């Protein structure tokens, strides 16, 4: 039985689970012939103290966790595209690329949108320690971003719920605050926890677009919850990377449980808009270890979803 959408229902974007997104990418359905541009000449390494000409990462690189290499670029098409290309060329683990502007940013329903130059945190992380379920890395970035935003708001003295919506959107006050997209490199052979040989991507790239000083209509940004004062993007990135160090030290079971506990979609009535104008109504009851959302309808039948436009019903 379908559940009607109320006027208070909130909708973000057509959601694709990280598992499906990575599978599509690995299967070669995405063009990866991108121009790396300034990535060929890094603007920062762990030995750089300052980044001349960078309005974003002008502080000492030591402000960030030593386990990450942060590079900055003024403008690019997509930081995810750049890091995928860099990864194929042998770029190291835990490489971070930050841009002040993206000309090919993707948002809800795969629509392109552009934030004003220098307004938001546009960042991608390249990760080579890929677990058996690669989407866990996407979940880690979502959790780290949630933690960073909560700490920023706590410092500003405000109490605003920052919720994680399946699969990896952040909501503040019920409005979209951040979105995450993932991609993967070519497959390689690894050994899983049972000692069995398996195929996993050689690396995963996770990109985050976090609204800091600007947001599209009906979305949210961090500065509005801090009395419209300037929010330091350096500080937000530093908090995110610090939390990533903690999350990446967890085993896959622990990380999945952390994601489940923080996923606000669970135990809520939802409507899922599916391809070909189909929809499913029910209650989100669980999320599988492989990232699929489990929805139970009014008859008790359960469906596991990879894709769908999720509406939280109130």
UniProtKB/TrEMBL annotation:
InterPro entries: aa-tRNA-synth_II/BPL/LPL, Biotin_CoA_COase_ligase, BPL_C, BPL_LPL_catalytic. PROSITE patterns: BPL_LPL_CATALYTIC (PS51733). GO terms for molecular function: biotin--[biotin carboxyl-carrier protein] ligase activity. Keywords: Ligase. Residues 69-252 form the BPL/LPL catalytic domain. It holds the Pfam family BPL_C. GO terms for cellular component: cytoplasm. PANTHER family: BIOTIN PROTEIN LIGASE, BIOTIN--PROTEIN LIGASE. This is Unannotated protein. It comes from freshwater metagenome. The lineage of its organism: unclassified sequences, metagenomes, ecological metagenomes.
């Amino acid at each position: 039985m379908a559940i009607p959408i109320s006027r208070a229902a909130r909708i973000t974007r057509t959601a694709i689970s990280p598992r499906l997104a990575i599978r599509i990418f690995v299967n070669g359905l995405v063009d990866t012939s991108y121009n790396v541009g300034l990535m060929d000449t890094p603007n920062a390494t762990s030995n750089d103290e300052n980044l001349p000409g960078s309005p974003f990462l002008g502080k000492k690189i030591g402000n960030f966790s030593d386990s990450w290499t942060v590079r900055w670029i003024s403008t690019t098409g997509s930081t995810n595209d750049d890091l995928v290309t860099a990864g194929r060329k042998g770029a190291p683990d835990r490489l971070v690329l930050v841009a002040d502007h993206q000309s090919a940013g993707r948002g809800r329903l795969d629509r392109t949108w552009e934030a004003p130059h220098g307004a938001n945190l546009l960042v991608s992380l390249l990760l080579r320690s890929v677990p058996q379920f690669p989407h866990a890395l996407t979940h880690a970035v979502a959790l780290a971003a949630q933690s960073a935003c909560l700490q920023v708001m706590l410092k500003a003295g405000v109490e605003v719920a920052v919720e994680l919506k399946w699969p990896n959107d952040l909501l503040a006050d019920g409005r979209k605050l951040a979105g995450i997209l993932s991609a993967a490199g070519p497959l390689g052979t690894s050994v899983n926890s049972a000692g069995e040989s398996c195929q996993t991507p050689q690396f995963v790239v996770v990109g985050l677009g976090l609204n800091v000083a600007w947001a599209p209509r009906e979305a949210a940004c961090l500065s509005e919850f801090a009395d419209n004062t300037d929010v330091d993007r350096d500080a937000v990135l530093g908090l995110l990377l610090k939390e990533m160090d903690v999350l990446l030290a967890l085993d896959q079971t622990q990380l999945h449980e952390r994601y489940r506990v923080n996923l606000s979609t669970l135990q809520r009535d939802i409507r899922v808009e599916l391809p070909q104008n189909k929809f499913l109504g029910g209650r989100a009851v669980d999320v599988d270890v492989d990232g699929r959302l489990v929805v139970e309808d009014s008859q008790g039948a359960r469906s596991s979803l990879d894709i769908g436009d999720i509406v939280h019903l109130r």
